[in-house]
Amino acid sequence: MEVHKKMPIRYYRRLRSWFNSSNIKNEDDANHNGNNNNIKPSFSLYEIEDGGEEDEIDGDYGGGDLSLGSLEFDSCILTNKLRVFVGTWNVAGRSPIGSLAVDLEDWLNLKDAADIYVLGFQEIVPLKTLNVIGAEDQAVATRWNNLIAKTLNNKTCELCSSCPNSTPLSSLSCDNYYYYYCNHINMDDNNNINNSQQNDSNRECCRINRRENNYSNEYALVASKKMVGVFVSVWMNRKVLQKWRVSNVRVCSVACGVMGYLGNKGSVAVSMSIEGTSLCFVAAHLASGEKKGDEGRRNHQVAEIFRRTCFPRNTTKDDYDINNHHHPLTILGHDSRIFWFGDLNYRLYLEDKHARNLIRKQDWKGLHEFDQLQKELEEGGVFEGWKEGNIEFAPTYKYSSSISNRYCGGGLHTKSGEKQRTPAWCDRILWYGKGIEQLHYTRSEIKFSDHRPVSALFTTHIEINSSATPLLQLHKFQPTLLHPTHGVNKEDEDGNPTLLSLLTKDVQAC
Predict the structure, then answer these.
(1) Between 205 and 442, where is the model more confident?
(2) Looking at residues 94-121, what average pLDDT do you find?
């Protein structure tokens, strides 16, 4: 297409004015109808630096100050609050079946329901040699997922047989459907993705029809991953899936137990994007022990998890995700919305009898002064820049039995053969970044294991980002956009073609 070498800038300004006047009219109509909640123009044209106050610019496509490739619509960024529930629980190798049935309602606190439930478990299987070095058995994870589904949806939930045991790699969203691809992520000894497992033939696609409301349940499972005894399960309210685009759901597991590479200790992490915001959830189980120096092993494992966690790129083309190269590969690469939780096993720098004395007085502030993790946070030994809410509840570890309110050891009431353990806040929830507010941080009183479950409820801002669209994509808009009636003529007073008319002809010629 031939374009005049010199084109007055007033034509570009007139075009920009037309687009903006359309937006103002839409905004006025919305205000007139009473719908003025954070209304912003859906797009506007960027200002163009024309090298000074010259009134003429080059019109060539391939050069000059103005080229069609440089004209874009502004991103319209709105923010919405999302309620995120994060929970952690060491279940001491017990499976919730038969006589061990457990009620999760107290822990999940459905009276103050969240949009997303992120639940991390430790020791969902006993940490025996066969479980650590043998093949993964997904049956226990399925039982926990079924129990979570039943609790969240207040009924028996039929889950897809593959979904609870699968690792969603990515999710695509369009007007009618929510998709995610199921596959297992395998890492080699160097923590690289085993590409042999990434073939499309190994991937199972799950699709839910939004318009026909196949969401018979209020919450849907969007991610689930087990590594030996560490397990994470992420559930999302169906209204969130219908309202916002959830994409790039990916997982990574890091084993850093025996010899630094066995899965008796380590982490499973989930990465996802909700509209224009990426989030990361890390469920971890760190080294045990209350001897002096054991905190150093825990610090080392935290560093290893940061270093070795790597989320895979999507292996399928996503028409709705053209900026995939921007999606984070590491924990700290996310948009400042990161949650780390689990049995972190940090203990107290305090003798047992003094710790129990403070517990009897319910002097949580005085007890917290001797907390190892608090010391490490203050001194920058680990989790530098991370936050934790005020702990105003009793230590969650270690109880003498699943039916007892008594801590292990401690003198006269100690059972024969019972281990002496100083009570401690082993089960913790931390977060990193801006735009996060913690609403509560507490423990539940479920007597199922020697740990008590811990939970935190957060609100965080999600950016609703309408990504910039080049003017070369004008054919994707409604025809009325290409034939406006707001005072922009196809030719100016002298009969010369305007910029808009040239654009229209170019689009029509495609």
Answers:
(1) 442
(2) 93
